[in-house]
Specification:
The first copy, chain A, is globular, with a radius of gyration of 20 Å. By secondary structure, chain A is α/β, with parallel strands linked by helices. In chain A, the strands form two sheets. Chain A has a seven-stranded mixed sheet, with helices on both faces. A two-stranded antiparallel ribbon of chain A has the order 1-2. Chain A has two domains: 70 residues, Arc Repressor Mutant, subunit A (Orthogonal Bundle), CATH 1.10.10; 113 residues, Rossmann fold. The longest helix of chain A is centred in the first third of the chain and has 19 residues. Chain A has nine helices and nine strands. At the A-B interface, α1, α5, β8 and α9 of A face α1, α5, β8 and α9 of B.
Chain lengths: 212, 212
């Protein structure tokens, strides 16, 4: 097993997330073994790609039997860091932030939003679910007191970078950015920018192309 | 110009969306020309990648002067299908759907959510912004009456596929999926699956790796 040492490409990690979903489906359906071709079909990729992706995790699968659903599920959960829970701070309790807070799959996967920060005085002190919203002045204290592992940014574009600079200075090493602006962070901080427009624009490109 | 004929890779289209954002920033700041290196730095990529991406659009840029911000902005808007407006139907007026409905950048980019469908009898007939929510029985009528171009799916995983099958049968050619399940569609329908968990899981992978 080289699960714990090798660097796995980002694109592979994304596919591993998808494979895990299918495997969990299979497990719930009582399926014990699955062939790479079946995983490939569900994921819109090829059996060769599935085998290559899983090869990063070590030796798996038996010729003719495929992969053990239970074993592979366990390994993927470990690789994806889902065999523990993570303390998450949400910056921004606006519409996007609130929807993320209430998005059940996060919690089911072990991502617990235990800190919420907002700069609106009307919101500070009120509750979102079981969390009391704290003001921006409390950011560093809140991250430290809470033992935050990961920060989700859902604030307006204009304030995102300055807020994240404070998050990074406070020692946070993973940031998920929903603000409609790309963030620049030091190389040792894991960052994912989620642009809701980028996906829509690749669809409008496809539509516009079809019309020409 | 081969803008209108060549197939541009998906990864390039995503980067073009980002370049467009930076170019609009530059335009607002009164910057007339921009070098590929500057676009690359903003986008976290290389100047060679920027030049390659833009080469899909035809011949641009002058040696030593870089790209004209105004010209490139216009071309990118055309390529991304942003020089017109699109009629969007939102399936699901839950928390994610409502947040998407109220997400201002969609509208600014010409994506107008003009139809909202939900299966909750308490919601049907009520309004979301200036749109009256219609029931699932009305789906096909609503798409046809509205002249819908593009559908955003924000319904629970269990009902997503069956609803999208109806959307496809109604002739829709572009689907943005926020339901936490990958959808299977015919090859002539453009589809983007947005998984809010995939990005989080690639961060937890990075964190878990850092702890080992």
């Amino acid at each position: 097993m080289n699960t714990f040492t090798n660097k796995i490409p980002d694109a592979t990690i994304r596919r591993l997330s998808l494979y895990l979903r299918y495997l969990e489906d299979f497990g719930r359906s009582g399926i014990a073994n699955v062939a790479s071709g079946v995983l490939a079909e569900r994921g819109g990729t090829t059996a060769a790609q599935v085998r290559k992706d899983l090869s990063y995790l070590g030796s798996f699968g038996k010729r003719g039997l495929g992969y053990s659903v239970a074993e592979l599920t366990g390994v993927l959960r470990t690789v994806l860091g889902l065999d523990c829970t993570w303390r998450v701070a949400l910056l921004g309790a606006g519409r996007i932030g609130t929807a993320l807070f209430e998005y059940q799959p996060f919690r089911k996967r072990g991502f617990n939003i235990t800190t919420v920060i907002d700069n609106d005085p009307c919101k500070v002190g009120s509750r979102l679910g079981d969390v009391t919203i704290r003001g921006e002045d409390d950011l560093e204290c809140a991250l430290r007191d809470d033992g935050t592992d990961l920060v989700i940014v859902a604030v307006p574009a204009l304030v995102a970078q300055q807020l994240v600079d404070r998050v990074v200075a406070a020692g946070i090493k993973a940031v998920l950015n929903y603000a409609p602006v790309p963030l620049r962070l030091p190389g040792d901080v894991a960052l994912r920018n989620v642009s809701m427009l980028v996906e829509l624009e690749s669809l409008s490109h496809a539509l516009a192309r079809g019309r020409r």
